[in-house]
Amino acid sequence: MVMPLAAYDAIADWYADYIAAGAGSAYAQRVTAALARLLPPAEPGGGTCLDVCCGTGAYVAAIRARGWRPVGVDLSQGQLRRGREVMPVVQADATALPVRSTSVPVATCILGHSDVPDYPAVIHEIGRVLRPGGLFVHIGIHPCFTGAFADRSDPARIIVDGGYHRTERRFDSFTTQGVRNRVGAWHLPLAGLLNAVVAAGLRIVDTVEASPQDAVPDVFAFAAVKPAH
Ligand SMILES: C[S@@+](CC[C@H](N)C(=O)[O-])C[C@H]1O[C@@H](n2cnc3c(N)ncnc32)[C@H](O)[C@@H]1O
């Protein structure tokens, strides 16, 4: 099957630089800190961490630092060209993972939820592949304070408008230096995000909000367990 051109194909190199050294690097440090808190150390001998929407593999080192073996899944060949330099990867849709049910001890989805039109379907799919007792770590832009509905020109005093309720993909942004103005972003309000976790049968065990000093949070993350019984 020929995959359609994915949104990130044309900007993969820009994206890798944006995270590593560009305007996104401070944000990436907050994401890395959230991951370090939410991802437990691997069992003796390690285990697979399925990194859904892995992109260029920006957080592979943080996953390995906890003892896990990352395996990435992403739709974009452009992103995977960089991602496969740092881990085994497969091109697939996150709503139809080419993975056996109840086989994976840990799955992450880092900054992926605003890139898919139906993130509840992704969480449901992750719930399918997790083994009983397995853990899902979600890290994303903060659904209340980051999006086309939020003017973050002053990070300490952002303005949120009623566009919060709009769930379609939007490209408009207070800045021309970010990701959204290049590839767009879908919006899933907070209740929709949390209800998707409930619907997938997962149980949230920890949450993180992060921001620069004195600023309104721009990261929201959680760890959720698939009950053993
Ligand atoms: C903002 S990037 C995040 C990449 C990486 N996790 C990181 O934090 O650097 C979002 C990624 O989601 C991928 N993506 C979008 N829709 C997808 C889908 N339906 N299935 C798998 N990956 C998808 C994009 O190709 C892109 O690489």
Task: Please render the helix and strand layout as text.
Blueprint: H1 12-20, H2 25-38, E1 48-52, H3 60-65, E2 69-74, H4 77-83, E3 89-91, E4 104-110, H5 119-129, E5 130-141, E6 150-151, E7 159-160, H6 180-183, H7 190-199, E8 203-210, E9 219-225
Parallel strand pairs: 1-2, 1-4, 2-3, 4-5
Antiparallel strand pairs: 5-9, 6-7, 8-9
Helix pairs in contact: 5-7
The site of S-adenosylmethionine has 21 residues, from loops.
Walk me through what this model shows.
This protein has 229 residues and is an alpha/beta fold. The chain has helices spanning 12-20, 25-38, 60-65, 77-83, 119-129, 180-183, 190-199, and strands spanning 48-52, 69-74, 89-91, 104-110, 130-141, 150-151, 159-160, 203-210, 219-225. It has one domain (7-225): Vaccinia Virus protein VP39 (Rossmann fold, 3-Layer(aba) Sandwich), CATH 3.40.50. It is built from 7 helices and 9 strands. Strands 3-2-1-4-5-9-8 form a 7-stranded mixed sheet. Strand 2 (69-74), helix 4 and strand 3 (89-91) form a beta-alpha-beta unit. It is globular. The structure holds S-adenosylmethionine. Residues 6, 8, 19, 53-56, 58-59, 74-76, 79, 93-94, 110-112, 115-116, 179 line the site of S-adenosylmethionine. S-adenosylmethionine binds at residues 6, 8, 19, 53-56, 58-59, 74-76, 79, 93-94, 110-112, 115-116, 179.
Q: What count of structural domains?
A: 1
Low-confidence stretches: none
Radius of gyration: 17 Å
Strand content: 15-25%
CATH architectural name: 3-Layer(aba) Sandwich
Distance between the termini: 37 Å
Mean pLDDT: 94
Sequence of secondary-structure elements: HHEHEHEEHEEEHHEE
The level of helicity is: 25-40%
CATH class: Alpha Beta
Shape: globular
**How does the major sheet shape up?**
7 strands, mixed
Please identify the structural class as seen in this structure: alpha/beta
Total DSSP E strands? 9
Return the CATH topology.
Rossmann fold
What's the CATH H-level homologous superfamily?
Answer: Vaccinia Virus protein VP39
